[in-house]
Design goal:
It is a single chain. The chain is of the alpha/beta class. The protein contains 10 helices and 11 strands. The strands form 2 sheets. A 6-stranded mixed beta sheet has the order 7-8-9-3-10-11, with helices on both faces. Helix 8 links the parallel strand 8 and strand 9. The longest helix is centred in the C-terminal third of the chain and has 18 residues. It is a peripheral membrane protein. This is ABC transporter ATP-binding protein.
Length: 278
């Protein structure tokens, strides 16, 4: 059996504050092959911080520890900053949730995509532009020549998100961490973006960590699902079996979703239990 692409064991992320230490991630463990792994949970459950810790994007004040945090055999806890910079964007990439805060407001969209590519590959400006335009077209931007020269504030949230996805995919990463990558997109574009991500996993053998609040989307798109609550994983199961989840927190999340043809007014409220966070 081949070694996993990503191996995470007992990952913890802590933030010292004036009133004590906040444990954002507590003892998270999982492995990832060349597959689609969904991470679901409420806001504040630790989903995004798990992804940021893998990529080394946590705040400088954060304390990140793990028994093992390895990507393709490389220890992510001990590599130098220079090695991490070479890794980030080329072999591991992350699509952040809100393009308004992720894209550089004083650089055109095309220039940012070209810069990403030329940071990791020796290509001419003309070749980089050609590949950037092709990637913008691949994420269903109708007029890539026009969008290439626009600034982030000149495009809609959905188009900005697609530009961010194009920038993260341009260098052909082996692992993509997608933090709510389709939240700003309409349903038809959402399906097109998911098809692109699916083809990368299937055809190019990329590993994908898909962070989302949308349980229905994760159950239909991913291979496996991790359910997080209060910084830790409370359940792991095959995506197709999500409706048969055993943990009361997962069952509560599923029960809170509206159902077509059923009387759901008012919607049930998730009643949390203290032992879930232990």
């Amino acid at each position: 059996m081949s070694a996993p692409l990503l191996d995470v064991q007992n990952l913890a992320v802590r933030f010292p504050t004036r009133t004590g230490t906040v444990e954002a991630v507590r003892g998270v463990s999982f492995t990832l092959g060349r597959e689609r792994l969904g991470i679901v949970g409420e806001s504040g459950s630790g989903k995004s911080q798990t992804g940021r810790a893998i990529l080394g994007l946590t705040a400088p004040s954060a304390q990140v520890t793990a028994d093992r945090l390895r990507f393709d055999g490389q220890d992510l806890l001990t590599i130098s900053n220079a090695e991490r910079r070479r890794l980030r964007g080329k072999r591991i990439a992350m699509v952040l949730q809100d393009p308004k805060y992720s894209l550089d407001p004083v650089m055109s969209i095309g220039r940012q995509i070209v810069e990403t590519l030329r940071t990791h590959e020796r290509v001419s400006r003309s070749e980089a532009r050609k590949r950037a335009l092709a990637m913008l077209e691949a994420v269903q931007i109708r007029d890539p020549e026009r969008v290439f020269d626009l600034y982030p504030h000149e495009v809609s949230g959905g188009m900005g998100q697609r530009a961010m996805i194009a920038m993260m995919l341009i260098a052909g990463p082996e692992l993509l961490i997608a933090d709510e990558p389709t939240s700003a997109l309409d349903v038809t574009v959402q399906l097109e973006i998911l098809a692109i991500l699916d083809s990368l996993v299937r055809d190019k053998g990329m590993g994908l960590i898909f962070v989302s609040h949308d349980l229905r989307l994760v159950s239909s798109f991913c291979d496996r699902v991790l359910v997080m609550y209060a910084g830790r994983v409370v359940e792991e199961l095959a995506a197709k079996d999500l409706s048969q989840a055993q943990h009361p927190y997962t069952q509560g999340l599923l029960n809170c979703m509206p159902k077509i043809g059923a009387s759901r007014h008012p919607l049930p409220v998730l009643e949390r239990q203290a032992e879930w966070a232990r």
